[in-house]
Amino acid sequence: GRKSLRQKIVDELKHYYNGFHLLWIDTKVAARMVWRLLHGQVLTRRERRRLLRTCADLFRLVPFLVFVIVPFMEFLLPVFLKLFPEMLPSTFETESKKEEKQKKKLNAKLELAKFLQETIAEMAKRNKADTG
Hints:
The chain has four helices and no strands. It is mostly helical and 132 residues long.
């Protein structure tokens, strides 16, 4: 069924609350990682990726906050998200956006695998022709 306007607003507020909460948790974890780095410890690849993602999210948060703080500017947010799809911090992405990104990545990997298979088959044919 269709949601009422009140329910849509409540859902959107919950989405923003959860996004800010997750960003706060990521920021605390990233601060601990930076502390460890400053004291000479080495980060794993996973920790380094998480630290980079969190830093990128914090830099993306600045233009996003303009939309949240300025009255009625949130109505322009969908337009800007169409123009700049990577503008939102990763903690604010919806499930449908995450699935869409995964599908694009999977399609790209499948295309690359197909290309590599064709290349290997062609090389095998050449080698066979050269030896035969």
